[in-house]
Amino acid sequence: MFKIKRQVTIVHPKDVVRLFALHKLAEVFRVPGSSLSNEARFGHELKAAPASDFKLNEFDLIDNDIKDVADKRLLKEMSQGRLVIRTVGEYCDHMVRCSSLKPKEVARVLLLPPTRNPVEIQ
Fold first, then answer.
1. DSSP code of 41?
2. Does residue 29 lie in a domain region?
3. Cα–Cα distance between 46 and 9 in angstroms, integer?
4. Does the residue 3 lie in any domain?
5. In this predicted model, what pLDDT tens digit does every residue of 52-70 receive, in sequence order?
6. Are 118 and 10 in contact (CB under 8 A)?
7. pLDDT for residue 92
């Protein structure tokens, strides 16, 4: 008989995902992580360089991250305007939500380290 290996998906704890999401925003916008609050708004407190045809600005990078980790349902909600991410807190919540939907993609986008105490979903 053959044994079939069951694939186990590793999900990082929510607080770790939230922390790395904050680090990502701080890195992209070149601000200290301690200066970011959940209420900070993209385009107001967090400014981007002018857009260019040749180089992505900060908003482009964050928008790509948001879409990369979203599943089809969330992408549809975004395209219909039912899901709009305007603040640091909403970005972090989105990453936490998507960490259970597409954990590998969230780990890639946020550069999450391998975890010692993973949560498994089967």
1. B
2. yes
3. 34
4. no
5. 778 899 999 999 999 999 9
6. yes
7. 98
4 falls within a domain: no
Residues of the chain falling short of pLDDT 50: 121-122
Q: Which helix (H) or strand (E) covers residue 121, if one does? A: strand 119-121
In a domain, 1, yes or no: no
Per-residue pLDDT of 22-38, as tens digits, reads 999 999 999 999 999 99
Question: Tokens for 37?
Answer: 């609050």
Q: Record the tokens describing residue 55, joined without a space.
A: 């180089």
Q: What range does the domain containing 56 cover? A: 9-121
Q: Pick from 112, 122, 105: which is nearest to 12 by CA? A: 112
String of b and e for 59-88 (b: at least 16 CB within 10 Å)? bebbeebbeebbeeebeeebeeeebebebb
Any residues with CB less than 8 A from the CB of 18 and at least 6 apart, and which?
A: 92, 95, 96
SS3 state at 100: helix
What global pTM score does this model have? 0.85
Give the count of domains, the chain. 1
pLDDT at 8: 59
